Amino acid sequence: SGSAPNPTRLQYPEGFLWGCATASYQIEGGAKDGGRGPSLWDVFSHTPGKTHEGDTGDVADDSYHLYKEDVRLLKNLGVQTYRMSMSWSRIFPEGKGKVNQTGVDYYSNVVDELLKNNITPYITLFHWDTPAALAGGWQNRDTSKAFADYAAFITKKLGDRVKHWMTTNEFVCFTDLGYKIGQFAPGLKLPDAQVNQVRHHGILAHGLAVQAIRANTPSGTQVGLAENATVYVPIIETKEHVEAAQKATRLGNAPFLTALMEGKYMNLYLEREGANAPKVEEGDFKAISSPLDFVGINVYTPFFVRADDSKQGYAEIPYPTSQPKMASPWILLAPECLYWAVRNVVDLWKIPALYITENGTSSDDVINSAGRIDDIDRIMYLRNHLSHLHRAVSEGYPVKGYFLWSLLDNFEWADGYSKRFGIHYVDFKTQKRTPKLSAEWYKNTIAQNAVL
Ligand code: GBH
């Protein structure tokens, strides 16, 4: 602001929203406090051998008690928004039925604290912490209905102050990773037909929740979701490979985002699954394809594709072994994915408004002798991703905001506390938060509204 126009400066448009993201089970702790019921992640993390060194979210960042301090961190960064999630079993300890007023009050207080500091809450209703009391978890169709009831209840309660809601976070992580691969809660390895049914219950839960939120909140309330749509980058930017990346985006996301956006399962997906295809009941797709006000995408890393003559029309290109990786080996560094993630989904489905609901990386952060955490690899990662996002914005793609994952180091699921994604370092013994160099960098990015 105030500086002369500079055509080489990657300036974001006025009103672009900068934020940080977190999730309830990863930061809150207070697992048994205030009447919270257990989630599948409490059960899973307490099962020997499931997480890194048996780490659990029992205490995590203790944000259940320290949320005011976390809002101060946000305030200091200068973010306009904060994406957080709510623990379903803090509100309904048994997933349905009896409400836990202490849990409702907790989230109401967090929202008030954010608003008092001029930070707009974007709330995810479900970031994988399924109430353990719900029989059969996502194998049971009733869980989708229970989710919609929870959504109706809490959005009605907080809807006077919270205007932006996301239903679910990343279908594939609570369906496939939980019920097919077994790497996430509840740690099952079911056959394909059952996995497909779990996936269907996931997207049904989203759809029923959208309807429930619309019915229970004032008009003007914005409803979306946060989805880790698999990202496909064309190997080079020519027409045929760009088209191949679009085809890959449709098929690669067939059980999830594609189904939501197109109101049915793709034929190619149904053919491929054959007798294992999900059982769909009448009315399911009416709910599942409920119009959304925005789509959120979580983007970390892509696949590269080229056009070919196969039925699907593309082939995935294996990464060279020399492709650079970040501290989590699944994050292969390819920052153009943030541009292609946006372009592919908007071109395919004419999405009216899009947010990057997560983007970030782990880093082998250490406190150096000067007491600082100089995470220059994280800054490199973020700067490059935001440069490519700037291209999408400049080309007119409707990107409204960006949420950095994450505000602070936290419980990184099966990796426990061994992977740090925060721009604030957390000493898990003392709960002391220390801004990393990347926090200073992000603060400056926000202040300048430009990538520097
Ligand atoms: C997101 O998941 C989540 O929304 C967030 O909660 C999480 O903290 C963040 O990203 C960072 O991981 O170890 O090779 O088997 C991203 C999806 C799914 C990516 C599980 C890593 C494990 C890959 N994640 N996956 S591997």
Straight-line distance between termini: 14 Å
The tally of helices reads: 16
Q: Estimate the strand proportion.
A: 15-25%
Q: Average pLDDT, to the nearest integer?
A: 98
**Secondary structure: number of strands:** 15
Q: Globular, elongated, flat, extended or rod-shaped: what is the shape?
A: globular
Main sheet summary:
8 strands, parallel, barrel
Global Rg: 21 Å
How would you write the strand order of the largest sheet? 2-3-4-5-6-8-11-12
Instruction: Give the cofactors and ligands.
Output: ligand GBH
* Low-pLDDT stretches: none
Bin the helical content: 25-40%
Helix/sheet category: alpha/beta
GO cellular component, one term: cytosol
Binding site for substrate: 26, 127, 169, 300, 405, 412-413
InterPro entries: GH, GH_1_N_CS, Glyco_hydro_1, Glyco_hydro_1_beta-glucosidase, TAT_signal
Active site: 170, 358
Describe the structure.
The chain has 452 residues and is α/β, with parallel strands linked by helices. The protein is 38% helix and 16% strand. The strands form four sheets. An eight-stranded parallel beta barrel has the order 2-3-4-5-6-8-11-12. Strands 7-9-10 form a three-stranded mixed beta sheet. The protein starts with 9 loop residues before the first strand and ends with a strand.
